[in-house]
Amino acid sequence: MSHFPAPAAPRRTPCNIITGPLGAGKSSAIVNLLANHSDGNWAVLVNEIGDVGIDGAIAKSSGADGSAMVAEIAGGCICCANGVAATVTITRLLRRKPSRLLIEPSGLGH
To answer: What transmembrane ranges does the database entry give (predicted)?
Structure first.
């Protein structure tokens, strides 16, 4: 008989990937979700194909009340060119135990 408690089951974080072509309204949908959710802190990963992150800035400003953790990966598609950076960033976000993770790949991804 062991005197140590059994390890807790891993906590699963719901994840939504918001996809679509450039201009489809992905960032607007995320801003709307951030403004209207009521279930804890959310994390958002925004992917920009270019070096300047406009969508990330929009998401950060909509989570200004502290209800969202926003991370951004610029300079290439998270599905291929920045896969390692995406894995590291997602791991860092999940360590903060968000109640939900939203991922917005670039609208110009492959």
So the answer is: none
The DSSP line for 72-87 is EEESS-TTTTTHHHHH
Rounded Cα gap, residues 68 and 101, in angstroms: 9
Would you say residue 7 lies in a domain?
no
Q: 59: number of CA atoms within 13 Å, CB side? A: 26
Calpha distance 24→82 (Å, rounded): 22
Answer yes or no: is 49 within a domain. yes
Instruction: Give the three-state DSSP class for 41.
Output: coil
Sign of CA dihedral 37, 43, 47, 50: positive
Arithmetic mean of pLDDT over the chain: 82
**Residue 73 resides in a domain:** yes
**What residue ranges in 14-55 does DSSP mark as E strands?**
15-17, 42-48
Q: Mean pLDDT throughout 38-67?
A: 67
Beta bridge mates, 103: 17, 45
Q: How many structural domains does the chain have?
A: 1
Domain that holds residue 91: 27-33+40-104
